[in-house]
Amino acid sequence: MYHNLVQSHLDRYKASFLSATAKSGRITELASLLEISSPSLTELQHALHEAIHASHANVVSLLLANGADPNLRDSTGNNALHVAALLGNLEVCSLFLKHESARDLLNALNDDGFTPFDVSFENGHFAIAQQIKNVMDNANFNLSDDGFEEELQELQDELELEEQVTVSRGGESPPCFQNDDGDCDSLLSHSEQDSLYSQSEHEAVETSKGRNLSKERESERIHETLLLLNALQEENFSLKEKLRTQEVRTANAQNALIVMEKQLAEKEETIQRFETIVNGENLNQLSLDNLNNAEEQLLESIERIRKQKQIMIESKLSAQEEKSCCVICQCEAKSILLLPCRHLCVCDGCSKREELVNCPLCRTFISERISTYM
Predict the structure, then answer these.
(1) Which of 199, 187, 188, 193 shows the shortest CA–CA distance to 170?
(2) Does position 187 have pLDDT exceeding 70, yes or no?
(3) Would the pTM of this model clear 0.85, i.e. be above it?
């Protein structure tokens, strides 16, 4: 499970690195990464959109050549051409319009129901909108089936209506038409024009607010995504460091275990050989040098045993002497029994001291002193 978690974080790190190289325009590194790895379509899509946002047309071309699918959508339903049209990147749009899936890209609707043409036109990128229209015309697209003609007509009607209202607001004569008598009748009354103008202004303000709100939400989502990506990268780095530390500890433990096993085997062999020599078994199988070495080892062991025995004997004698010495002078042997506590703890000389009126051990008043012989 830990391995799967590490692998998952490594995959995320690889995807983020792919997107980072695409965003920064490091095309050489990106080409090497595409050559040594097999990124998924989702990873390629993320890298493609990063390159579009950074306006790296050469990176976009490289990703398309390596299998990136421009038809894949982002969180708002935009394909690659939607994004390029939104950003107003004419060079990048040209690449997608030459792509084999250009028809699907042009006909696609995002979550707001907009085609790439709508997006470019709504954001004021008229050169891109004209280029898209030219491509559709040259390719004999059926615009009426996909609603392009209706949308264009609606936009033209709206522009004409805005021009009419603007003219009327500027004090000029309102739009008119000629009746049968050749007189010019107003198309709209002043009150109707004012109402229409106010309504148009309100709709324009609401549309602008909606766009600003959408952009703010998109900016917040991008910020949250970047924060999440940074957190994942830090977590991935931390996990890699922990894994590296664990691997080093495991390697050190394995080496230490090997050394200990070797030392244990040598000790066991030495003990077995020593026991064989001590027991006098199979001595005829040993060489003269081995016998001499064994004899020296045995003599050294015997000498160490003798010294240890001597130390233990002297320690016991010292303890016994300490027990038999007077507790006051620590020199003479204990020989006086004190009553009534019956402690034998002082020598004859110390018992005659005038200041000794209480037993040195229990502090009982001394009523009588009796000499003993041991």
Answers:
(1) 193
(2) no
(3) no
